[in-house]
Design a protein that fits this description.
- The protein has 107 residues and is an all-alpha fold.
- Helices cover 66% and strands 0% of the residues.
- Helix 2 crosses helix 5 and helix 3 (39-52) crosses helix 4 (55-62).
- The chain is globular, with a radius of gyration of 13 Å.
- It starts with a helix and ends with a helix.
Length: 107
Amino acid sequence: NHMTKFGVEDTDFVEKLITWADIIRKTFYDDGVDEVISTRRLCHIAQTFSIFKNRAKAIDLCIARFDDDTKSAFLDLYSKVDAGVETLDTTSDGNEFDRQYEETLNA
């Protein structure tokens, strides 16, 4: 709904954001990470995407509040969910996210 509200329609991006947030939430509930991506933050990403028309930039700007390790891990995970997106260099190995990503794909 927020994509429509801000005049952009990108159902592929919406689906990837939902998958990304679900993996992060599952990882959080398994004590693999200390932060989550809230629905409000997803709405902010949609709004930022409507301005810049760039997936990676929208995500990067909207997760800037997290510490560097968390931000890096979240960006790395998104690059795995959306293989076509160009993201900033990350240094996280993301091993807990890798496990959750594999489980989501196999579900």
